[in-house]
Amino acid sequence: MSFTIAIDGPAAAGKGTISKRLAAHFGFGHLDTGLLYRAVGRLMLTGTEPVAAAQALVAADLEAEGLRTAQVAQAASKVAAIPEVRAALVDFQRAYARRSGGAVLDGRDIGTVICPEAEAKLFVTASAEVRARRRFDELQGNGVQTDYETVLAETKERDHRDRTRADAPLRPAEDAVILDTSEMDIESAVAQAIAAVNATM
Ligand code: C5P
């Protein structure tokens, strides 16, 4: 039996943690689809043409060093606007979604484009200021030198690109449950996400 949970939303809204916790709770697999675009973005920065990179992407590319940097995040959102890049990554994501035993996929277009038939859909969001503050605290915790204003500007730039692109823009599916985590700690966000999925079972 397959069961798909689609989680979409902007950067640093809590999607990643919520997805991991949902997967552990329900015993499902988890695919962070942002890693696919980050891997293509990273290859572009090292000189590979993005469409060719997406078409030739292999599992090892998703485990490469440096996929979580701010520079790769910006490159990812640029290559993610290229329709041929997105098209090259569809089959892998849909196959993962249908794996037996259930799957959680998180990204920007899972509920709208990749898995419109997903059994459960969540759109996890928070204000840009709250998201930038969380990302800034995380970067500081990892010893990265940066300032809040830079992180806020980068967050807004990437959101704007993701929301306004013509192909698969970031937006909630009509049947998604919206979870605004601006004033929630992660434990309440996870509890609400589990309750929303349970309500569909
Ligand atoms: O989620 P993450 O921040 O790792 O995603 C990096 C970038 O990849 C996003 O800013 C977005 O442009 C792109 N992306 C996408 N569709 C997805 C997942 C990520 O366009 N399903």
Automatic annotation (TrEMBL):
Entry EC no(s): 2.7.4.25
Residues holding ATP: G9, P10, A11, A12, A13, G14, K15, G16, T17
This protein's GO CC annotations: cytoplasm
GO biological process, one term: pyrimidine nucleotide metabolic process
Family (UniProt): Belongs to the cytidylate kinase family. Type 1 subfamily.
Domain of life: Bacteria
Reaction(s) the record says it catalyses: dCMP + ATP = dCDP + ADP; CMP + ATP = CDP + ADP
Protein name per UniProt: Cytidylate kinase
Main location group: cytoplasm
Keywords: ATP-binding, Cytoplasm, Kinase, Nucleotide-binding, Transferase
InterPro entries: Cytidylate_kin (IPR003136), Cytidylate_kinase_dom (IPR011994), P-loop_NTPase (IPR027417)
Pfam families per UniProt: Cytidylate_kin (PF02224)
